[in-house]
Amino acid sequence: MDTEQLRLSLKLAWLDYYRDNRAWLTRLGVWVTYKGKRRPSSSFILATLSTLEPKLIQLLPLVVELSSNPDRIVSALGLNFNPDAELERLKQSKKMLPSSQNPAVDYGAPASKSLMTPDEACTGVEEDRSARI
Fold it and tell me: Biggest alpha carbon distance in the chain?
């Protein structure tokens, strides 16, 4: 397992999720300051990412055996940053980061456009049920 790739994948997943849900996350009472960085609580970040990144679910039991401190885990995963500041930094630098879904994700663009794949854009087809009878 490439730990740097996992860290990058987790960072991108967290930033995508945060950007998509910023309107209500900024008002949620989960904000803390840890080592000078204002961010949602470690438990909130880990719970969110465990649903977004299957590799993390496999890794968390081992990680928790080594340290049950969620702040340390989030720091070790490279996620101790203010998501608003990080999104602004990426937008200002117009930096494109690789994503597990796309070769590059533009953090200045709306998430729905930057992460949409052809399958997600599919409207489907309506089946003619009378043809099966």
Answer: 66
Name the residue with tokens 């989030």: 74
By the 8 A CB rule, do 49 and 56 touch? yes
pLDDT, tens only, 59-100: 999 999 999 999 999 999 999 999 999 999 998 887 555 544
Side-chain-side CA neighbours of 117 within 13 Å: the count stands at: 7
DSSP 111: H
CA distance linking residue 102 with residue 19, whole number of Å: 17
Which pLDDT tens digit goes with each residue over 28-44? 999 999 999 999 999 99
Q: Are 39 and 32 in contact (CB under 8 A)?
A: yes
